[in-house]
Structures are given as structure tokens and as C-alpha cells.
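pls ignore typos typing on phone
0O2 + seq
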Amino acid sequence: IDLNEIKKMKVEMTRFMMAYKFALDEMNTKINILKDEFNYIHDYNPIEHIKSRLKSPESIFKKVVKKECSFSFNSIKESIRDIAGIRISVSFISDIYELSKMLESQKDIRVIERKDYIKNPKPNGYQSLHLILEIPIFMSDREDLVYVEVQIRTIAMDFWASLEHKIYYKYNKEVPNRLVQELKEAALTATALDKKMERLNKEITAYKETTAVIENEEMLL
Ligand code: 0O2
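k done
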């Protein structure tokens, strides 16, 4: 075993992971700015939760083996694009698209991939909007372009996905048919709830707007 070679690899691995940590910090700041701005200007905050995670070297390794990609940093970067991941839960379906538009239109962000599992849910019922975004990070001696996976979904979609994830692993990825069917039904129920809540919210907003107009007119009289 060449100890120097191992040391060199360790330094390279640390550098590689560090870039993802900075990208995550950068993206979290962007999302928090949008959240605060929404609160100040519109007196409304669409973001319910933000959860971010850095994939562990062990899970990166497992995915490399599963995807049969080579062990070079370049090929890991290109084939595993969720090393830095952020999951955002919002209140309504329309918030998902508003928020994604705000992120996608930022000048330093490049949209690499966009998977809309809300318009096209997965066969098991999974719904979410997945974005692979590329952002620049600036270090002492270089600039790196790093991928960050951003998943945006409603609280109901998130509730469903967490339970499905638990069941999937509890049954060691071989979920009994009856449960698969019930999960599909639960996904449809979540969609129905999301649609109803969106409609109710629109109604409340429209009502608030008309009462504000009437109040303004009365003040002018
Ligand atoms: P973890 O532990 O959450 O990171 P990829 O494997 O990412 O290269 P794929 O399948 O094209 O390729 O990615 P996709 O469809 O964008 O989904 C990736 C992530 O979305 C998953 O990451 C999950 O977080 C989530 N996801 C996708 N499908 C489902 C689903 O059916 N149920 C649930 N609960 N989550 C899902 P990981 O790496 O699998 O896991």
C-alpha cells in the first residue's frame, strides 16, 4: 500500500465533498432569501420546510457500484447528481411552480434537468418536482460548477413519500401487492386534498382582494 497515494486520495475526496457542501450552503441561502422576501413583501410564506443533506461517501460508493460508473471524480460528478440534495415542502401545488420558476431564472443557476413527477406521477403514485441545478462556487484558487438536486413538493406529497419510503425499506424493496395498491390510492387522496386546498386558498385570496378594494373605496368617500 502506497501511503502517499492514500493521503493524496483523501485530500482529493475532501476537496470533492467540500465543493458540494459549499454548493448546498449557497443554494440554501438562495432559498432562504426567497422565503424571507416572500414574508416581507407578500406577507405570505409558501415554504413550509427545507431539508438539505449531503450524500455520505458510503452511499456515493454504493450508487457508483449500482450504476456501474467508473471511480473517477469526473464520472461520479456526472452520474451521481444528487450528492448535494435539498427538499422543499410548500403549501400549494402552484407554490411549487412559482418557487421553481424563481430558482430557475436566477442568472448564476443553470437548469440541467427538470423532472415533473406531478404532471407525470411515477407508477407507484410518487409526486414531486425534481430539478438538477448547476451553480458556481468560488474558492481561494478556483471556481467550480456543482450540481445540486432540488426536490419541491407539497406537504401532502411529502407525507406520502416519507411513508412510502419507510414501507419500501421495511419490506426490503418487495412491498406486498395489497400495500402497493393502497399506497396508490393514498397518492390519489393526497392529490385530491392538494387540489381542494388550492381551490379554497384561491377563493380566500380572491375574497381578501375584493374586501380590500371595497375598504379602499370606502376610505376615498
Ligand atoms: P435518497 O436516499 O432520497 O437520496 P438517480 O438514482 O437519482 O440517478 P433517478 O431514479 O432518475 O436516478 O432519480 P429521480 O427519479 O430523480 O429520483 C431520485 C430521488 O427522488 C430519490 O433518491 C428519492 O429521494 C426520490 N424518489 C424518487 N422516486 C421515489 C419514490 O417512488 N418514492 C419515494 N419515497 N422517493 C422517491 P434516492 O437516491 O433513491 O434516495
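The chain is about 60% helix and 20% strand. The radius of gyration is 22 Å. more later
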